């Protein structure tokens, strides 16, 4: 078997990046730890088969092993995540791989839109974080017809579905996933991030971590929309953040939180509707129904406007997580989860899916490349395209 002339310190970098010990790495290719160590020190070389197994185990492209030096891995997106008063640590391998995949999709869609003669979307970067948040919120509500979506929805689940549809109709890519690609062994962490926005004049994108409580995702969506309206990309952990003074990035997050809350539940009307004569729980239940948002979002609004303490907001989030967990357990005991085409549309978004499918079926994109972008077998693309059009 021919040897793979890999770069030893790239192999070492890949192992450490994947948080493998030398013993763990050696076990993956069924060699002794001292033999693997010899590969890292450049004294020996693995076979091509062994190197490919390591690339798969370390979640890196096989070609990386032959680079003269490790590639740059830190994402070029502002890190706006906080927990309490602490800044979050660096990004996980799962986030980095997810982010790179999302960037690949956005790059393709941008080029596709440019070829279609798309013009810059007028609302991207229309405002800044120094503008009146109420003005920004009013513009978001107008562009996305938020009030009409609210009146047509029967509950908050329908409301968030309507908002996503309106956002995609306006030209915003919206993707949701709880794992890296289609790999169920690589879950995303809510503790690490809840969502991110990639501002772009023709291919703006929002990603929502769907491992989060479903009732929390509507606030994340609104928060990331604000990021686009002020033309600021960023990865966020918004729902439970306390408002605080500090660096510019934190001011951006405070602005996005405040504006998102105003989009979903306007302050003036909320203060009129909140009844101090009845218990907080009753208030929250009534207003959640009225505004077509979850009780968790109403609790967040109550915290923003100083009618609820922070620990009550946290309690609502814990309840939402427990509710989701029980719902998933019941689903797994019944007929199972959503069908594969439904899940692909959920993960890739309808706007992106339709663009890729159309390009492939028109012969402008290889079926192989379309399958790679959508995470689908090329042979199933026609079926998926029919699903998207309701056939």
Automatic annotation (TrEMBL):
UniProt family annotation: Belongs to the short-chain fatty acyl-CoA assimilation regulator (ScfR) family.
Domain of life: Bacteria
An MF annotation (GO) of this entry: DNA binding
Domain HTH cro/C1-type: 39-65
Protein name: XRE family transcriptional regulator
């Amino acid at each position: 078997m021919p040897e793979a002339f890999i770069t030893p310190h790239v192999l070492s970098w890949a192992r450490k990046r994947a948080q493998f010990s030398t013993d763990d790495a050696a076990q993956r290719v069924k060699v002794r730890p001292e033999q693997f160590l010899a590969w890292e020190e450049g004294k020996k070389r693995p076979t091509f088969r062994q190197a490919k197994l390591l690339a798969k185990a370390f979640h890196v492209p096989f070609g990386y092993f032959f680079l003269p030096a490790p590639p740059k891995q830190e994402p070029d997106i502002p890190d706006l995540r906080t927990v309490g008063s602490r800044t979050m640590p660096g990004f996980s391998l799962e986030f980095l791989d997810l982010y790179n995949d999302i960037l690949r999709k956005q790059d393709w869609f941008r080029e596709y839109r440019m070829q279609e003669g798309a013009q810059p979307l007028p609302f991207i970067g229309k405002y800044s974080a120094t503008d009146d948040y109420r003005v920004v919120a009013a513009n978001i509500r107008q562009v996305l017809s938020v009030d009409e979506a609210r009146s047509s929805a029967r509950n908050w689940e329908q409301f968030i579905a309507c908002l996503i549809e309106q956002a995609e109709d306006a030209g915003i890519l919206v993707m949701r996933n709880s794992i890296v690609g289609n790999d169920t062994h690589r879950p995303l962490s809510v503790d690490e991030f809840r969502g991110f926005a990639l501002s772009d004049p023709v291919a703006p994108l929002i990603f929502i971590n769907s491992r989060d409580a479903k009732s929390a995702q509507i606030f994340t969506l609104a928060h990331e929309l604000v990021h686009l309206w002020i033309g600021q990309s960023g990865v966020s952990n918004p729902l439970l953040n306390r408002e605080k003074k500090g660096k510019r990035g934190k001011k951006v997050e405070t602005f996005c939180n405040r504006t998102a809350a105003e989009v979903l539940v306007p302050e003036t009307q909320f203060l009129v509707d909140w009844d101090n004569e009845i218990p907080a729980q009753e208030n929250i239940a009534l207003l959640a129904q009225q505004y077509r948002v979850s009780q968790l979002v109403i609790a967040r609004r109550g915290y923003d406007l100083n009618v609820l303490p922070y620990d009550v907001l946290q309690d609502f989030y814990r309840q939402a997580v427990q509710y989701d967990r029980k719902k998933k357990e019941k689903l797994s005991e019944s007929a199972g989860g959503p069908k594969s085409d439904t899940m692909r549309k959920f993960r890739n978004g309808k706007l992106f899916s339709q663009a890729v499918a159309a390009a492939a079926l028109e012969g402008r994109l290889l079926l192989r490349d379309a399958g790679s972008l959508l995470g689908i077998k090329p042979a199933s693309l026609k079926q998926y395209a029919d699903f998207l059009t309701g056939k």
